[in-house]
Input
Amino acid sequence: TKEFKRAARIILVGAPGVGKGTQAERLMKRYPQLSAVSSGDLLRESVRNRTPLGLEAEAFIKAGNLVPDAMILKLILDKLKSNRWVSTQSSISDPSPTQPSRDPSASFILDGFPRTATQASRLDSLIPVNLVVSLITPVNIILSRIASRWVHAPSGRVYNTDFNAPKVPGKDDVTGEPLTKRADDDEETWKQRLKKFDETSQPLLDHYDRKNVLWTVKGNSSNEITPKLFQELDARFA
Ligand code: G5P
Ligand code: MG
Output
C-alpha cells in the first residue's frame, strides 16, 4: 500500500463496462486513504429501496439512458455531504463559496459522475477534482465481458465468470450472499448505454482538458491498465 502526500480527488470516465468499478476497487486496496462513490451504485440502491427518486430513475436506467442531471446531482450532493467532502450547507443551485464544514484533505474517487458537462460544472463549484482518468478499451472487447458480469448489489462488488470469478459460484466473496445480474446488462441496453456515452463524453472530457486535469490510459484489459494507473497516481500524489 501507498500513502498520499496530498489529497487526490479523482473521477473515472469511460464506456459502460470499461472497468471503472474494477479499477476503483484496486485503487482503494493500494491507497487506503481513498474511498469511492459510484453514481450507478447509488442509483441502483435507490431503485432497490423504492425511494421516490429510485422509482423515477428506474425507467431511465432500464432503457440505457442517462437519468436527468437534476436527479443525479441531488443524489450525489447528499452523498458528498454525508461523507463530509463538501459543506453540509452546499446546495446544487447555490454553491456556497466558503465551505467551513468540509474535509479539505479527503481523497476520493467518483466512478460514473460527472457524466455531462453540466454535471461537471456543478461539481467544480462544490469541490474541484484534480485528476480525470479517461479509461479506453476497444468496444468489441468490452461487449464480450458484459454477459458474464455478476454483482453483489448491496456492496457494488463486481465479478465476472471468466475474469474475476467469485470463490464460490453465485455467491459474494465477503458476505456469501447471492449474486445477481444488473437490469441493464443485456446487449441491446448496453448498446444504448454506449450510444449515450458517445454522445456525452467528448464535451465532458473537453471540459476537463481545458482545466489541465485530464489523463488518458488505454489497454485491452484491466490488468494492462492497473499498473499504468498506479504509476500515474504514485507520481502525482504519493
Ligand atoms: P453505471 O453504473 O455508471 P456504466 O454503464 O458506466 O454504469 P459499468 O457497466 O458499471 O459502467 P464499469 O464500472 O466501467 O461498467 O466496469 P466494471 O463493472 O468494472 O467491469 C465490467 C465487467 O467486466 C465486470 O464483470 C468486470 O469483472 C469485467 N472486467 C473488468 N476488467 C476486465 C478484463 O480485463 N477482462 C475481462 N474479461 N473482464 C473484465 O451507470 C448505470 C446507469 O446509471 C445511470 C445511467 O442510466 C447509466 O446507464 N447513471 C447516470 N445517469 C446520469 N448521470 C450520471 N452521472 C449517472 N451515473 C449513472
Ligand atoms: Mg460500474
Summary: The beta strands are 9-14, 34-38, 107-111, 131-136, 149-152, 157-160, 214-218.
